[in-house]
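Subject: two folds for Thursday's group meeting

Dear M.,

Sorry for the delay on this. The cluster queue was jammed most of the week, so I only got both jobs back this morning. I'm pasting them in the order they finished. Each block is the input sequence followed by the predicted structure tokens. Could you check whether the formatting survives your parser before we put anything on slides? The first protein is the one we discussed after the seminar.
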Amino acid sequence: MEFHIGQHWTVNVLGMSVHMDTLITLWITMAIIIFFALLAVGNIKLIPSKIQAVFENIVTIFSSLTKDMGQEGKKHTPILIALFLFIITGNLIGQLPWKILNFIPAIKATHGEFASPTNDINVTAALAIIVLVYYIISGVKIKGLAYFKHYFKPVWFMTPFNMLEDIVRPLTLALRLFANILAGEILIMVLAGLIASLLDPIAINTFCQNTLGGILPSSWVYNLGLFLGSLLPLPIMFFELFVAFIQALVFTLLTSAYISGAVAKH
């Protein structure tokens, strides 16, 4: 059995190679967030509906992350919420049965693999760069050009190492999110391959003859293999739901810490 990891449906746009599969799942992710956000604020009530209550709790939780920044912290709550909702929705998008699309000849011919947009390093790198630019601009707005003094502390020859920190931060943010989501999808793909091997009639007949000695009918063993095989990816898929939440939360918490450090007066 042959697996193709990391293949993308690429289209040349203005001389650039664009990953159309990633772009489509990005649009779907944004559409889902915008739809539920509009649903939550479209008819705000004193006694909130369920969807309104969910969004109010999200705002409350992320507002608490910026309390240490004082009144200035309220300005940074929207980007934290946006990052968390985008990342967790994008992570969960990968749990949908995108393999069904491979039965469409036009899509199958592209050799692309629809999955979480966050399993593309270009997406996670873009998010990390946005965070880098955002907290630097936030620091400059509060401190002016004095923000860059921290590059020369505690002594001037530490400048290269302090500047390197601003390179390592987005690098680790991008790689951590990308690697965790990609690894989970690889595990699910491998287990799907095990299912295919369980459903191989020749392998099942051989198992009946060599192991069970013909005690059970082949059809029974085949159906048993079908049932057990279908359950194989489930533990990993449930674990991926947990990973999707944790990675979105870690990315957001680190972003909050970087912003807090940039705007701190001490």
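Second protein, same layout:
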Amino acid sequence: MSDSDTSCDIVGIGNAIVDIISHEAEDFLSRHHLVKNSMSLVDEETALAIYKEMHPAIQASGGSAANTMAGIALLGASPGYIGKVKDDELGKFFVHDIEAIGVNHLVKPTSSGPPTARSMVLVTPDGSRTMNTYLGASSTLYADEINHDAVASADFLYCEGYIWDIETTKKAIRLAISIAKEAGNKVSFTLSDTFCVERHHQEWLELISGPVDVLFGNEAEFLALSGCPTLEGAIDWIRGKVEIACITEAQNGSTIVTTGHTIGIDPHQVDKVVDSTGAGDLYASGFLYGLIKGLDLKTCGEIGSLAAAEVISHTGARPQASLQEIISSELKI
């Protein structure tokens, strides 16, 4: 690709997934022995078995980092995305969706190997989502498919914790991090899920003490990472380990932690939480957009809160209203 093809404010890297979302009763989870509000990796056979029992579903492009890059594009910045799909029906759907939003998809779809990844997302009446993910083609992202020029030229790299579950993709993301740091760029990372934190605890402790500048996660993930029983303890623990830590706390808003400051961000109220899928992803969109634009941290957090509020007010992890209009109206930006 030419330089013009790879000119991005930020590049995200993660599992390229199509979400298949349905609303289900609590007993659906118990029948399938699923842990509510978590992400579990499943094989293709299990994914099909869950799909067969689901109520009529909505199909939407997803994947944590892809959702974040989509939000950043809708806010008005220029993101790129590294995530692998197969050249099949779901893969074409994914690429069309992300490029139509304004994200530069930086990995050529593969014509061989497993099919495009999909996640069976089960939304219970309280808005909680339980994800059952078959990684498929996304697990075959190789280091030589990382677009060096795009990563080096972007001011920010955003890394999805879920990608750490496969050794092949872990090597790819480590390469992307090293390219970003060598170019003097900022590296941001999202913890993704408490199970991910537990699986990769020691490696992630080393990661956040090393190349990571901006760390995202929810309260439960920060408690699991820090080993602290309270949020206050986790805040004290993370302070100084990264340049900026963003801790989301659902209806309690979020907390931004730097070496010298703790900034509380109020939640933006919604009439009803329809589907919490993508709330953390879109919070990261808003916060990173603010950083890209050089805004102060409190404003970054407020943009994140507004973007998260929009996405939980409907089914699916991609915004349906104009984020630019919302931010302009609420924050006069």
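Two things I noticed about the second structure. The longest strand covers residues 17-23. The mean pLDDT is 93.

Cheers,
T.
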